[in-house]
Amino acid sequence: MSRRPVLALTTGEPAGIGPELAAAIATRRGDLRLVLLGDRALLTERAAAVGVTADWPDYTPDRDVPVSLLHRPLAAPCTAGTLNPANARYVLDLLDRAVAGARNGEFDAIVTAPLHKGVINDGIGGKFFYGHTEYLAERTGTEQVVMMLTGGGLRVALATTHLPLKDVPAAITVESLSRTLRILHSDLQTKFGIRTPRILVAGLNPHAGESGHLGREEIEVIVPALDALRAEGMTLIGPLPADTLFNRKQLEQGDAVLAMYHDQGLPVLKFASFGEGINVTLGLPVIRTSVDHGTALDLAGSGRADPGSLAAAIELAAELARHRG
């Protein structure tokens, strides 16, 4: 990419820490153009909490400045730390504008500050809102996406995400696992610039099933899926026992790990990178990264929230945009 990538940063739940993190990040200069999406008065107020002067110019596509603001008005007054369902539509409007800009080439990537699923469901009624990832998939017409977190030198993708543990085995099929691995493999190539990705695949059961004595999912589902994909040319290592997968020697053999469920892979990654982890949504037609934390209502407006994860998400989004060209 010969020009500086243009990143849309949605500032998230207005009562949370997203607006002040965005204001703090906006003081950092890099080889990119950052467009803040949010209410100008709100961001000016939260900028003061972190000692920043909110002098960002209004965004226009042809204005080549390090930071600009695309003003979208709040639907209702907002107090730091106090959720207001009346602003649910405002939060979704930020996402809709970012997606529209990314789809038409106006933005090279989207970075999202945290939102609050509960208050959005309270505010919009009707169709249930599951979260950023599912909403972006719907808005872009994407049938399946894959959640991957990066940080601490690790990339950990998930075969299943926010499911009760009792529902995980049934959700892992040869077909679903194959789709997930194809998305992971493709995005490691096209977005991360890894020509021949090596993927470490965890087993589902303790000791990867111990030859069927501790469960048959490895034998009946995971191994058949991996064998078929290996025949297509993918480099897949596993299924590996999850309790020994995350050691330095093993991890050096792979570019990413595929864990079978949320709490199998993410505790290790968050231990290695807490406060600076990044959530990447794979499979979308646009680049999207996010923080690995929530709205932290108790910190909102205090100026004490750590912008490390948001800074890392912005840096990675810019890097992925450059890979993609």
UniProtKB/TrEMBL annotation:
Binds 1 divalent metal cation per subunit. Can use ions such as Zn(2+), Mg(2+) or Co(2+). It is found in: Cytoplasm. It holds the Pfam family PdxA. Coiled coil: none annotated. It catalyses: 4-(phosphooxy)-L-threonine + NAD(+) = 3-amino-2-oxopropyl phosphate + CO2 + NADH. Its cofactor is Zn(2+); Mg(2+); Co(2+). A divalent metal cation binds at residues 162, 207, 262. Belongs to the PdxA family. This is 4-hydroxythreonine-4-phosphate dehydrogenase. It comes from Jeongeupia chitinilytica.
